């Protein structure tokens, strides 16, 4: 936006009595901002009211118990757990944990699968003001030990299941100073563990006096939610009491009420399932339908069965739902909103049309971030708004600045300050950092990790901003669209290649279920050559016709520098437990036939197709004769 137009906008904002009609004439996009601001003001009031009155997440839950004692709080595997029952279980947990004599703000780690015990254990510890580390129940050995140590857990509670018991057994010698309690069994090996269930049986379900947690304040950790660890060991993101209340308020943006029924098949240790889903339900008196793990074949069946009104998704989950054969009842359900992030543009409309979802609410944020954006306007492909008008009112302001992916740093002007992108341009998302958050940090345990998330001297000397590490684009209406992660964008033939955009193009072929795009190094060349790990629709063979069609489709729809040089057809899907594409190992393995056992192909411009990559052609690539 030009400087003159921006000045006009800021001036217009201060004119008392300016009509909405006049504003719409000057700024056609302002209606979207007003729609967003109306809802976000509700969120802001809700958060401030609770924080200033000292009403934190556990207080919200206890109010729910008083207001809705017999109402279903959790529905799990056809069993109903009322607010009152969950409170009694939480009280038992608090009774057990009170014997450990932990201080307010100290940490207990829980490694429990998606089940009600995760929730009542978390709530019971909250009754004492104890911070809870949500441990990914899939990690083992070194990453597991690291996760427990880095958050300074005084106790580890392990959920039921032989696999989790085995995980505890593998690390118990490295955690000799950390008591381990096991849920779900009384037949424990050795003397290193204590049965948590037996302690619960003898615990009194009486309520806990709030005076016990009187030391809790807005910045006291409520829980720690870990990053995925795909770029190193998992990092514990600090979810303060303030941030927990803010997470619980996000569903207000979709007009959430106590009549809603939320469905989450996402892991509770993640910020989507455990943050937006679970915390969002608390304080509203709504019901959460919890599934142990995602199932594409049971997703809509569950939604119909339990009259779900709000369903969660993340990453490639929607692509898996589309892969299920069509059925006449696909659109028969009560879901009014699907909320999540990672729904790619190439399947958005097809998904919404087939399953008759009235509203898709895509959001963008980071667990450790200072704010989030959300698309409440049902704009196809958008993850929210980054508007100068919204920034006038938002206490945490958001900007997209120009970024150099080769130098891996923002582009700065002659005064050393960042430059805002214009509509149609792609840049790096930044957000202001409230002083108290800057002081507390984003992660526990490392000043270095916290500093990496900060960019200084952005618009003036001395200012500090949180860096999301992702590239977004804005359109003329200031809707934002996710484009790529910094580590995923690569340079080839002197041009920047967005893995996200290449994947969108490739999945435009109806026989390609998914495409994971990344860059690989070729000795003697600058940058990285594009490579795509392709998953074909079930039953589709890798044939000459298929390879030819992929080649022609890429040539027609992608510039030469963005067309993948190599193709790989993995036997297994490389997704994280939160349905994000996992690229680290794929990049390491590259395109060496001696390492990769999957079928490999290279772009054969002579024969106008993708041809098999043999050991001989691999050697030629390494000597650049094929480029």
Tell me what the structure shows.
- This protein is an alpha/beta fold and 627 residues long.
- Among the domains are: 54-293, Rossmann fold, CATH 3.40.50; 488-622, GMP Synthetase, Chain A, domain 3 (2-Layer Sandwich).
- The chain has 21 helices and 30 strands.
- The strands form six sheets. An eight-stranded mixed beta sheet has the order 2-1-11-10-12-13-14-15.
- α3 (30-52) crosses α10 (241-249) and α10 packs across α11 (271-281).
Short description:
The chain is 32% helix and 22% strand. It has 627 residues and is an alpha/beta fold.
List the helices and strands and how they pair.
Blueprint: H1 3-13, H2 20-26, H3 30-52, H4 57-67, E1 72-76, E2 79-82, H5 83-97, E3 107-111, H6 116-126, E4 131-134, H7 141-150, E5 153-158, H8 162-171, E6 180-182, E7 193-195, H9 196-201, E8 221-226, E9 236-240, H10 241-249, E10 261-264, H11 271-281, E11 287-290, H12 299-305, E12 310-314, H13 317-323, E13 337-341, H14 345-355, E14 359-364, E15 373-374, E16 384-385, H15 388-393, E17 398-401, E18 403-404, E19 409-410, E20 426-432, H16 435-440, H17 447-452, E21 454-456, E22 464-474, E23 479-485, E24 490-492, E25 495-497, H18 499-506, E26 512-520, E27 529-536, H19 544-557, E28 566-568, H20 584-589, E29 600-604, E30 609-612, H21 615-622
Parallel strand pairs: 1-11, 3-4, 3-5, 4-8, 5-6, 6-7, 10-11, 10-12, 12-13, 13-14, 27-28
Antiparallel strand pairs: 1-2, 8-9, 14-15, 16-23, 17-20, 18-19, 20-22, 21-22, 22-23, 24-25, 26-27, 28-29, 29-30
Helix pairs in contact: 3-10, 5-6, 10-11, 13-14
